[in-house]
Amino acid sequence: MITPNNPNPNGSVINIGTSISNTLVVHENINQQVIVTTEDKLRLVLLKSENVLLSKRDWITPATLLISFIATLCTADFKDAFGATKEFWHGIFVILSVLTAAWLIFTLGKLLLQKDKGSIDNIVQEIKSKN
To answer: Which of 16, 19, 52, 103 has the greatest number of beta carbons closer than 10 A?
Structure first.
């Protein structure tokens, strides 16, 4: 067994402490800021941040639906079914497309208004604020 002061099998002495201390470089970066806050304030900030982060992906559902409805309108040959005419089914898909487009525009607008609010720096700044 090799220890700091016992020779290795070849007979030489290894001083691990000296070897490490001669090659060790220590960098100091110990400046810290401490944030003291209440649990309810932290919960409020995190809930608001969660809503912002969720709104960043809310546009996916209406965009996917809109693509599906437009593809249906472009490729489908509507037929009379379930007691409704083909014009009725075509109209339903047109209305669904318009409503989904409005939903998509709303979610994209909401995303643009909140684009910078979900960053880590913004969340920390919100926790630091006195409000």
So the answer is: 52
Do the domain assignments include residue 21?
no
Check whether 115 has a pLDDT greater than 60. Answer: yes
Angle at 97 between CA 93 and CA 101, to 5 degrees: 170
Q: 82: domain range?
A: 30-128
Helix axes 60-75, 86-113, angle to 10 degrees: 150
The first and second tokens of residue 32, run together, are 């810290």
Per the DSSP assignment, residues forming a β-bridge with 15 are: none
Instruction: Please spell the DSSP secondary structure of the chain, one letter per residue.
Output: ---SSSB-TTS-B--HHHHHHHH---------------HHHHHHHHHHHHHHHHHTTTTHHHHHHHHHHHHHHHH-----BTTB-HHHHHHHHHHHHHHHHHHHHHHHHHHHHTTTTTSHHHHHHHHHS--
pLDDT of residue 30: 78
Between 39-55 and 120-128, two packed helices, what is the crossing angle to 10 degrees?
150
Question: What angle (nearest 5°) sits at the alpha carbon of residue 59, between those of residues 55 and 64?
Answer: 150
Q: In this predicted model, what pLDDT tens digit does every residue of 29-43 receive, in sequence order?
A: 777 888 888 888 888
